[in-house]
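Morning run. Coffee first, then this:
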Amino acid sequence: MTTPVADLVNALEAAKPSDLVIIAALAGLAVCLQALQARLKGKGALGPVALAKWLTVLAALRVLDIRVLKDALATPSLVLHGLVIWMALRTILHDIYADLYLTRLKNLPVNKILLNLCSFAAALALAGYGLRQALNVDVGSILTSSAIITAVVGFSMQDTIGSLFSGLLIQTEKPFKIGDWIKVGDIEGQVDEITWRYTKLTTFSSDQVLIPNNAIVKDRLVNKSEPIRQVSVSVPVPAPLGTPPVKVKSALEDVLRRAPLVAPRPEPRVRLHEIGQDQITYRLSFSVEDFEDTVAAKSDVLSAVWYEFRKQGIDFPVSRQMLLPGRSKGPCAVSLDVANLVKGVGLFSGMHADELDLLVQCAAVRTFPPEARIVERGQGGTTMFVIASGLVSVRIGEKELSRLGPGDVFGEMALLTGEPRTADVVALEPTSCLEVDREAFRGVLDKNPALVANVTRVFKEREEKFRGAAPSAEDDSAQGLFERFRRIFW
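And here it is:
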């Protein structure tokens, strides 16, 4: 009785040298294609190379089977042929059609569930063909005779099977795609992945939520990103009864016109929504380009409303139940020392008393303990600091560039041009600073356009300071800095 190994050895000994050379050449070519595939990994050309490799292996198997083995090892040869054919089909589906054609050439999303279903169907077809050829098994009779077992298994796994078919339904009908913001029941988030069993969402709080696909099909689904990615936002704003609506509407329209995240089309609207006993409620309606920007847009708009109301002298209404005897006017008292401190800053020179009062009321006094890092190099920001008391160190790494004390300022370029912080600022002793942000400066700039001359002087001083120190970009010139300033404030 011969063994398969002995049959293989006998077949190789009886084979023609030319046939063995052809097989060896095809095997060597397959090895070279595998090495090329490893080198091209991640460069987008894996699909065609992988397909050529598997076709070369298939050709080598066919030559080995027809010219050398001559049906001596029929069953092992059939299994190898089936595996190679399945790998070739899988390469065509996943690497060429999905990765190369859809993703890289057409820039379209890939229906992974459909691809896996096609791969699974091909594997079943090849397995059924192999069973029929090798063992003469009728696959249809197996499926028919196991109907009871299939029913039991199906009943016990009905939720899982429901999720699988729901996933296929989602991929077929495409009610949403990866990157869309959707709401399922009370859960809201951005779609990260769609699999057979579940859909993965990332919420606003950066939590990952896995929702079974059958729950999505059964529940109420809202796609925030379709049919267009623009999202309508409505923000209520209270105003006092004694302020004319025309004044409030004008202030709110200016806010919407300047807000960076508010889309210009459709045009934002301000409507008087309700007149109550203590206040008038206005409703701001506007659009943002993407749903994920809605929270940031609301924050920007409401912050700008506060500053605009301060600039226009419009108080926010307070309920009558909250009125207390001796309540001071305005949210903060203005210290004469702080006003004089701001008046001595070159950027704010020439301001009138009411403008200084507005600036200080819209600013915040912050205190820092020793060794506290006030700003960090490379950090974004829209505020500047005026040192009221204490001492700070300006550093880049371990190198100290300078020390600043009361009356000195830092961070003004971030406020004026939006550039990142260029150095670390660390408190050396207990330090108090007046932090002025962009909207507060915008308010006094609207009242006193002559402050533009102060801004120009600051830019020219910066250009002179760094002239010759290092080659600077055109945007770092006084003219380039002023252009960035103009884009932000006008």
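Residues 164-223 form a domain with the SH3 type barrels. fold (CATH 2.30.30.60). Good start to the day.
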